Amino acid sequence: MDLNTLYHRTLEHWADVVVAVRDDQWDAPTPCSEWSVRDLVNHVTSEDLWTAELMGGSTIEEVGSRLDGDLLGDEPVARSIDAAKAATTSVAERLPRGGTVPLSFGDTDVSEYVWQLASDHLVHAWDLSAATGTDRRLDPALVAAVAGWFAEREEAYRGAGAVAPRGLSHGGGQSDLLASFGRDSEWGPNHACAARFLRAFGNGDLDAIMLEMTPDCVFEATGSAPDGVRHEGKDAVRSVWAQMFADTTDPLFTTEEQVVAGDRALFRWSYGWTEPDGGRGHVRGVDVIRFRDGLISEKLSYVKG
Fold first, then answer.
1. d(CA 253, CA 272)
2. Model confidence at 305: pLDDT above 80
3. Domain named SnoaL-like: which ranges (predicted)?
4. What's the pLDDT score for residue 197?
5. Radius of gyration of the chain (CA)
6. What does the pLDDT look like over 202-249, one tens digit per residue?
7. Residue range 93-108: mean pLDDT, rounded
8. How far, in Å, CA of 181 to CA of 123, rounded?
9. What value does the mean pLDDT take over residues 103-124?
10. What are phi and psi of 231, to 5 degrees?
11. Are 17 and 122 found together in one domain?
12. In the listed set 156, 180, 204, which residue is the last one of a domain according to the structure?
């Protein structure tokens, strides 16, 4: 399969998944833990619009901030499909001529850039399928081609922070490819719950936090030593977190890492605040999580020091 055909087919697959997004799914979490469905589609739409610009000869400086922010407006599907069409046309016209394109990290061979784009569309198509409940299967020929290209680049990409830590492969070419890009091919309701919960904690949104907890949830707080304090039931847990947010100036909860495996999960995080003297303080810790029926039933917290 030639590179232009491969690229075209990855965009076709992406477009098929985009048009299947329901109106009530745009705020749903995705395997890209910081992104909702809308965020994910906006990211790829931006990439496609950048592709058309760069393949057409524009420089990064000439594009400037035109493609920053929300690009989807009130017609997210139409905007995304239009961008994909523009990208497909620009690649078909430019790829045969070869040469380089100016990327943020330097001039890059045009074929290498197209490989990057193809892999991004293929993996993000799976992300979107997983988030919206559509068919997650990827074309085995596309999987094999992208996996072969990425095998020699995975270590460098991970070292540069371009992909997440390697995920767990559950066997087979598709699962292996997704793992190499930091995905878990068994991403499901518990992963989605974790993403919503962590996003809500990061926003300090107590109502949204509690939506992810079972009625009989348990929270073991980090203090006081040596065993912490155990709080049982949704009302008790809510009260503790409400007090924590109320007593903290400029609270900021940041997720450093999350691992979900079956009905268990581990969250590594930091929690920061503003001190009376205006400086910033923080603690770092981990949560040991248990899920039941797609909600968090137990959160056991531990901190450093």
1. 6
2. no
3. 195-298
4. 94
5. 22
6. 999 999 999 999 999 999 998 887 888 999 999 999 999 999 999 999
7. 92
8. 8
9. 95
10. -120, 130
11. yes
12. 180
In terms of DSSP bridges, do strands 230-232 and 295-303 run parallel, antiparallel, or are they unpaired? Answer: unpaired
DSSP-assigned letter for residue 36: B
b/e sequence 103-130, b meaning 16+ C-beta within 10 Å: eeeeebebeebbbbbbbbbbbbbbbbbb
Long-range contacts, 116-119 (Cβ 8 Å, 24+): 117/7, 117/10, 117/47, 117/51, 117/87, 117/91, 118/3, 118/6, 118/7, 118/10, 118/142, 118/145, 118/146, 119/10, 119/146, 119/149, 119/150, 119/181
255: Cβ contacts below 8 Å, ≥ 6 apart: 33, 198, 201, 202, 267, 268, 269
**How sure is the predictor about 104, in pLDDT bands with cuts at 50, 70 and 90?**
confident
**85 is in which domain, residue-wise?**
3-180
Q: What is the pTM of this model?
A: 0.80
Q: And the tokens for 37?
A: 């469905």
Query: CA–CA separation, 210 vs 234, rounded Å?
Result: 7
Q: What is the dihedral of CA 179, 181, 182, 187, to 10 degrees?
A: -60
C-alpha 75/C-alpha 176 separation (Å) is: 35
